[in-house]
């Protein structure tokens, strides 16, 4: 069997007081451009997943998250053409600062039962029912 590269990416569903979830649109020029995804990203060497998420949430949307406010919800496991993505999904309901697009991406606050109206990467589709169960 061919070797497949395993890529670990951490992602977070931020949830606001109205139980809406934050998604961000991948900018042009990146892989999967135009698709809506949960904020997050790849681990840097030696980095813990929670630290990655705290760093990415600050870089991408300018908020400060306390590690105690990150709770695991589920994970995605999906084979793309050139790698296999393993992506833990955390939820977070508390943060400091205002959510703002720091990298020119579009942001949307969406009810869980409307997430299917936004085109998401294939890895994300099985995550949606978990958010619906949690939030609807
Ligand atoms: N942050 C995030 N990444 C996701 C999601 N779903 C999903 O398939 N991914 C994939 O996980 C990887 C995340 O990488 P990244 O955001 O740190 O990296 P990047 O776009 O700079 O790198 P890339 O252009 O090489 O993919 C991408 O391949 C992205 O397509 C998601 O909901 N959130």
Automatic annotation (TrEMBL):
Its EC number(s): 3.6.1.55
Cofactor: Mg(2+)
Pfam families noted in UniProt: NUDIX_4 (PF14815)
Binding site for Mg(2+): 40, 60
Gene3D superfamilies the UniProt entry points to: Nucleoside Triphosphate Pyrophosphohydrolase
Catalyses which reaction(s): 8-oxo-dGTP + H2O = 8-oxo-dGMP + diphosphate + H(+); 8-oxo-GTP + H2O = 8-oxo-GMP + diphosphate + H(+)
Nudix hydrolase domain ranges (all copies): 5-133
InterPro entries, per database record: Mutator_MutT (IPR003561), MutT-like (IPR047127), MutY_C (IPR029119), Nudix_hydrolase (IPR020476), NUDIX_hydrolase-like_dom_sf (IPR015797), NUDIX_hydrolase_CS (IPR020084), NUDIX_hydrolase_dom (IPR000086)
UniProt: 8-oxo-dGTP binding residues: 26, 37-40
Enzyme class name: hydrolase
Keywords: DNA damage, DNA repair, DNA replication, Hydrolase, Magnesium, Metal-binding, Mutator protein
GO BP terms, alphabetized: DNA repair; DNA replication
GO molecular function annotations of the record: 8-oxo-7,8-dihydrodeoxyguanosine triphosphate pyrophosphatase activity; 8-oxo-7,8-dihydroguanosine triphosphate pyrophosphatase activity; 8-oxo-dGDP phosphatase activity; 8-oxo-GDP phosphatase activity; metal ion binding
Similarity remark: Belongs to the Nudix hydrolase family.
Protein name (database record): 8-oxo-dGTP diphosphatase
């Amino acid at each position: 069997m061919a070797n497949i590269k395993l890529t670990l990416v951490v992602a977070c569903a931020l949830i606001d007081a109205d139980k809406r979830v934050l998604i961000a649109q991948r900018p042009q020029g990146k892989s999967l451009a135009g698709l809506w995804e949960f904020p997050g990203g790849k681990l840097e060497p030696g980095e813990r997943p929670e630290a990655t998420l705290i760093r990415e949430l600050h870089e991408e949307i300018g908020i400060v998250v306390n590690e105690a406010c990150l709770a695991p919800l589920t994970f995605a496991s999906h084979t793309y053409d050139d790698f296999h993505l393993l992506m833990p999904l955390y939820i977070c309901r508390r943060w400091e600062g205002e959510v703002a697009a720091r990298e020119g991406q579009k942001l949307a606050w969406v009810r869980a039962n409307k997430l299917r109206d936004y085109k998401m990467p294939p890895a994300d589709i099985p995550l949606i029912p978990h958010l619906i169960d949690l939030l609807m």
